[in-house]
Amino acid sequence: MDTVSVNKFRDTLKDCVEKVISQHNSLKVTRRNGQDFVVVSAKDWEQEQETLYVLQNSSLMKQIADSMATHTQKQEGIE
Questions:
Q1: Which pLDDT belongs to residue 79?
Q2: Residue 34 gets which letter from DSSP?
Q3: Are 41 and 24 in contact (CB under 8 A)?
Q4: Domain range list for the chain
Q5: What pTM did the predictor assign?
């Protein structure tokens, strides 16, 4: 994650936003009072929310683990 001061962020807002969107790399904006914030594209934020949902859902995680185990067994059987 890149970091930029709030003053530089303000001065280069358009370029910062374009970089965040095109490179899928969030940007931490620092402030003197210590209340920093992060800029992330909407698409990346939505994908991260979906990932968090899956990771927090024990039923989905069990299905993924079972699927991986089945896949591994099939691969070992082929070799």
A1: 55
A2: S
A3: yes
A4: 1-40, 41-79
A5: 0.71
